[in-house]
Design brief:
- The protein is globular.
- The chain is 19% helix and 32% strand.
- The model has no long low-confidence stretch (mean pLDDT 94).
- It has a single domain, classed as RutC-like (60s Ribosomal Protein L30, Chain: A).
- It has helices at 48-64, 86-93, and strands at residues 4-6, 21-24, 27-34, 36-37, 42-43, 73-80, 103-108, 117-124.
- It is of the alpha+beta class and 129 residues long.
- The strands form 2 sheets. It has a 6-stranded mixed sheet, with helices on one face.
Length: 129
C-alpha cells in the first residue's frame, strides 16, 4: 500500500518535514496539532481549554482533507506541558467526543513556549467493514 498525504489550509502548515495527515489504506494519522489558529498563525489563547478546542478544530480540519471526521477517531494522544492542566483539558475534550470514546493516552511533556497542549489522532476512514 502507498502512503498518501492530506493537507488543508484550515489547519496550521507543518513546521518541518512531516505531513499534516498521512494515510495508508483506511488508516489515517494526523500529526500533532496545537492551539494555533491557522487564520492568524497565533495561539488561540494562553488558556489550555481554548488551546485544546483549537487543536481539535485543527485535527478535524486535517481529518476532513482525507474524508474523515472526529467520529472516525480510534485513538487520541494528548501531550500536556503541565499535568496541572489535565482537568481543564479533559473538560474541553468532553465537548469533542461522545461515548464510546476513542482510546486515549495523556502524558506530560516539554512543549514550545506558551503551547500548553498538543494532540494527535489515529482514525479509520469510513467504508465497508
Amino acid at each position: 500500500m502507498t502512503r498518501t498525504e492530506g493537507r488543508t489550509p484550515n489547519a496550521p502548515k507543518p513546521a518541518g518535514p512531516y505531513s499534516q495527515l498521512a494515510r495508508i489504506g483506511a488508516i489515517v494519522a494526523v500529526a500533532g496539532q496545537v492551539g494555533i489558529d491557522p487564520a492568524t498563525g497565533s495561539l488561540a489563547s494562553d488558556d489550555v481549554s481554548a488551546q485544546t478546542a483549537q487543536a481539535f478544530r485543527n485535527v478535524a480540519a486535517a481529518l476532513s482533507s482525507s474524508g474523515c471526521g472526529l467520529d472516525d477517531v480510534l485513538r487520541v494522544d494528548v501531550f500536556l506541558a503541565c499535568m496541572d492542566d489535565f482537568q481543564a483539558m479533559n473538560e474541553a475534550y468532553e465537548h469533542v467526543f461522545s461515548p464510546p470514546y476513542p482510546a486515549r493516552t495523556t502524558v506530560g511533556v516539554s512543549l514550545a513556549p506558551r503551547v500548553k497542549v498538543e494532540i494527535t489522532v489515529l482514525a479509520v476512514a469510513p467504508g465497508p467493514e
